Amino acid sequence: MLSAQERAQVAQVWDLIAGHEAPFGAELLVRLFTVFPTTKTYFGHLGSCLDEVALLNHGQRMLMAVGVAVQYMDCLRAALAPLATMHAQMLRVDPANFALLSHCFQVVLASHLQDEFTVEMHAAWDKFLAEVAEVMSEQYR
């Protein structure tokens, strides 16, 4: 459970990247596929040669979902239920990948925001993304 201060820090970071979901998301995907190449198996629709437009589109969709999670921190389960169901039942994504994605996302945040992404913000985002990953994984039980 996030404290009020952690919620504020998550929202503050989101305010810094809102409107830039596509490039942040594309960079996140490239980093994910590079560092954890087995995750690419779930993205066959992106093709064997990563197309920049496809990366931008899918990256934007992913980060828009993170934006929904930020907006509905108090009711993550309800807000992410359709997405969690789709990933578990239709796409059958290995739930361990949500933690890998969270890790890569924090690296992207740190590389872009640098000094603005304080240790406290990193800790708040780590906790927040762990909650998102848990919600996304609940449909597998």
How are the SSEs placed, and which strands pair?
Blueprint: H1 4-17, H2 21-35, H3 52-71, H4 76-90, H5 96-113, H6 119-137
Helix pairs in contact: 1-6, 2-3, 2-5, 4-6, 5-6
Structure notes:
Residues 1-141 form the Globin domain. GO terms for molecular function: haptoglobin binding; heme binding; metal ion binding; organic acid binding; oxygen binding; oxygen carrier activity; peroxidase activity. Pfam families: Globin. The protein is mostly helical. It has one domain (4-140): Globin-like. Helices cover 72% and strands 0% of the residues. It has helices at residues 4-17, 21-35, 52-71, 76-90, 96-113, 119-137. Helix 4 (76-90) packs across helix 6. It is globular and about 40 Å long. The two termini are 21 Å apart.
